[in-house]
Description:
This protein is mainly α. 82% of the residues lie in helices and 0% in strands. The chain is built from 4 helices and no strands. Helix 2 runs antiparallel to helix 4. It is elongated and about 60 Å long.
Amino acid sequence: MNEKSIKKRLNQMEQKSLERILKLYDELGLSPEEPLRAYLQQYIKKKIHRYESEIKFYERKYRAKLEDIKKCSGDDFDFEDELMDWEFAFENLKFWKNKLKQIGI
Length: 105
């Protein structure tokens, strides 16, 4: 069995599994939307918590907010590396908060 046929088979299995799940939801008179929304909320909230924690770590470490630290310049590689990580956390926090709003929270 080659890679293409394996992928096709997996896709068929996933499709059949999804069809069985949707059929069960229908039989029980349930909507799959609520469990999916709840799962997404939980997943996104975990991401938000992760990045909030990371930001708080840097704020405690440097006793400053990101905006204030960005004004400082230097040639310290470790500091610059942490600054990039801090900015990454800040941008991802905004991204995930926006995703949470998109699903209606």
